[in-house]
Amino acid sequence: MSFALLSALLPLVVGCTGNGADSQEVFTPPPAMGDAMLPQTEVPGATGRQWLRDGVVLSGCARVEMALNLAVSASEDLGNTTAEYNVGSTRVYETLVMNIAESSRGSRLRLIEDDMNGCDGRQIEPYHATMATSSGRVERFTVMESEELPRAVVGFTSVVTADDGAQVTIERIYAPIVTDGDKPGLLSLATLAEGGSPGSPSPTELLDAALARAGAVIDTAAATLTAPSTATSTATSG
């Protein structure tokens, strides 16, 4: 599949109105967020980075995407911010919300996990159009097993197949985090790649670098209401 076809598969940027990922208005994030997110040099193979004002939708499991993109920060300068990196025929995304505003500790992560489980194993209509007609397109959504991920991290893999056999694969993970000792947040890393296999570098391969850049640790206590109040500082713990 050509890069042009992958571009046709690219998601719309979410918001009250959606803009195409290739038609972004110029956006500069608050300095604190720009400093807290991966620079191009820390994403292996990346040849460019752009900032997306309103997040990005990758999957047709709409409630999962909304749960992330509608997350807000309690601090004006630490708001929901997404960066997109070009890595050959793969697009890499990082979304970060620091000092997240939520009803209870870990409630945003639990909402995402519940919504993922609602789509698990289903064949759904993809969010992004692969061609002029919607016929012949299907997304197969699969929640990643906990054994595949660091403790407290959740995620999914989806393969979108077009009527001509072309495919793209989505892989996204969500990590509850803590910064400054007690400020909760949410970090998501994702790839959108040509073909039926996940892209490289994978979200889990970028997790340690993203945590270090944000000055964050994984908040294992956010995983469940009854989890102990502990945190782990690396993607491989747990």
Short description:
This protein has one domain (3-222): Protein Transport Mog1p, Chain A (3-Layer(aba) Sandwich). The protein has five helices and eleven strands, in the order αββαβαββαβββββαβ. The protein has helices at 3-9, 31-36, 62-69, 107-119, 203-214; strands at 12-13, 19-20, 48-52, 81-87, 90-97, 123-124, 138-143, 154-161, 167-179, 183-194, 216-218.
Structural class: alpha+beta
* Topology, number of strands: 11
- Helical element count? 5
Biggest beta-sheet profile:
9 strands, antiparallel
Q: Could you tell me the radius of gyration in angstroms?
A: 17 Å
Structure description:
- With 238 residues, the chain is of the alpha+beta class.
- It has one domain: Protein Transport Mog1p, Chain A (3-Layer(aba) Sandwich), CATH 3.40.1000.
- The longest helix has 13 residues.
Topology:
Elements: H1 3-9, E1 12-13, E2 19-20, H2 31-36, E3 48-52, H3 62-69, E4 81-87, E5 90-97, H4 107-119, E6 123-124, E7 138-143, E8 154-161, E9 167-179, E10 183-194, H5 203-214, E11 216-218
Helix pairs in contact: 3-4
Keywords, please?
238 residues, alpha+beta, Protein Transport Mog1p, Chain A, two-stranded antiparallel sheet, 19% helix, 29% strand
